[in-house]
């Protein structure tokens, strides 16, 4: 007797996809967890709001002016920023890890987040703190860093381990450059930039979140459209080319999309570390799939960052930037991954 099929065929207009049932279940659980954490985040603070009242405000059933102000104007931009940034980092991490075939290859490890922050600092110093200038600086910084890493790591092809080593070196150089620039600017601006550089969602505005998502959503759509081609790359370049894919074009497009997503995320919360590294692998382990799912990675990334921001705001003796929490948790995860990678290579 044959069991139920493990995959479902989905169709939306001209788009078709085959999704494993377990991936759908994991994605649904992550989406549910994100929704619950969102309600908790909107209700937590010096003025607590009950979950039912939060849901009422979001649904438009509760028109209390005070609750509208607290939930919608004060807390909602930050919570949505955490969801959006986490999702963008999850997708970017899955793209980089798939293209390089290495679970340690993530935008923050490779130095792209530091490069985006360098570009933002340069625009802050040379031009202004306007949002368009910061976005342009972030995008240029991440793109220039990606190009430099690509050129330095290229040697008869692009090898994942070499890419990571070069990326770590470039990241260290950029961190030194960022520190030097912070020492050259005015104290007030330096304090603002330092808090931002630690990875913080303090002061996130609805305009910044909306602007980043408007820039990033079309590129995220491109990433999902590339998913079937990325699966073909897992077969190797020769087999992928034989089955209709163009490996170099797909790889370049995927990295370009990943750079843009990281730049957009950095404009909202600064260089938040380890979410892009951990979210795709956590999603793969939960879904038990041989490949990284972009959708599951996005949902897991959103859940991880919202939970980390709740811890940073409310569960520690003093509020801290969310980047401090993700670094603390992600550091242990990185050590574990390095040990497993070394054992696999021995």
What does this structure look like?
By secondary structure, this protein is mostly helical. The chain has a single domain, classed as ABC transporter involved in vitamin B12 uptake, BtuC (Orthogonal Bundle), CATH 1.10.3470. It is built from 14 helices and 2 strands, in the order ββαααααααααααααα. It has helices at 21-43, 51-59, 65-100, 107-110, 112-126, 131-153, 160-184, 187-197, 206-233, 237-242, 247-269, 275-287, 294-315, 322-345; strands at residues 7-12, 15-20. It has a two-stranded antiparallel ribbon with strand order 1-2. The mean pLDDT is 84. One of its GO terms (cellular component) is plasma membrane. It is a multi-pass membrane protein. It is found in: Cell membrane. InterPro entries: ABC_BtuC-like, ABC_transptr_permease_BtuC. Its main location: membrane.
Q: Give the CA-based shape.
A: globular
How many separate domains make up the residues? 1
Q: Uncertain segments of ≥5 residues (pLDDT<50)?
A: none
Largest beta-sheet details:
2 strands, antiparallel
CATH top level label: Mainly Alpha
In sequence order, what are the helices and strands, one letter per element?
Answer: EEHHHHHHHHHHHHHH
Strand content: under 5%
Summing up helix and strand content along with how strands pair, one would put the structural category as: mainly alpha
**Number of strand segments:** 2
CATH superfamily: ABC transporter involved in vitamin B12 uptake, BtuC
């Amino acid at each position: 007797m044959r069991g139920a099929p493990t995959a479902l065929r989905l169709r939306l207009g001209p788009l078709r996809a085959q999704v494993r049932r377990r991936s759908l279940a994991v994605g649904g659980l992550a989406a549910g967890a994100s929704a619950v954490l969102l309600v908790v985040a909107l209700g937590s603070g010096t003025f607590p709001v009950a979950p039912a009242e939060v849901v009422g405000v979001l649904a438009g059933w509760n028109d209390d002016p005070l609750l509208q102000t607290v939930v919608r104007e004060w807390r909602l931009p930050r919570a949505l920023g955490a969801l959006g940034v986490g999702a963008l980092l999850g997708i970017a991490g899955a793209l980089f890890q798939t293209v390089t075939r290495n679970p340690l290859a993530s935008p923050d490890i490779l130095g792209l987040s530091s490069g985006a922050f360098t570009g933002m600092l340069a625009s802050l110093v040379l031009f202004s703190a306007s949002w368009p200038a910061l976005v342009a600086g972030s995008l240029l910084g991440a793109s220039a860093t990606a190009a430099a890493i690509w050129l330095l790591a290229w040697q008869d092809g692009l090898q994942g381990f070499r890419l990571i080593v070069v990326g770590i070196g470039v990241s260290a150089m950029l961190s030194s450059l960022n520190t030097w620039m912070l020492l050259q600017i005015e104290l007030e601006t330096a304090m603002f930039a330092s808090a931002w550089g630690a990875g913080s969602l303090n002061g996130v505005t609805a305009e910044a979140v909306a602007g980043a998502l408007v820039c990033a959503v079309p590129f995220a759509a491109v990433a999902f459209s590339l998913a079937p081609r990325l699966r073909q790359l897992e077969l190797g370049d020769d087999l992928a080319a034989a089955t209709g894919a163009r490996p170099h074009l797909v790889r370049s497009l995927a990295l370009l999309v990943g750079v843009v997503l990281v730049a957009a995320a950095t404009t909202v919360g600064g260089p938040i570390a380890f979410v892009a590294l951990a979210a795709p692998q956590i999603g793969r382990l939960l879904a038990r799939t041989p490949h990284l799912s972009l959708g599951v990675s996005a949902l897991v990334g959103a859940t991880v960052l919202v939970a980390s921001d709740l811890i940073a705001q409310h569960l520690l003796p003093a509020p801290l930037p969310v980047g401090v929490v993700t670094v603390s948790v992600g550091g242990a995860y990185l050590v574990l991954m390095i040990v497993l990678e070394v054992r696999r290579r021995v």
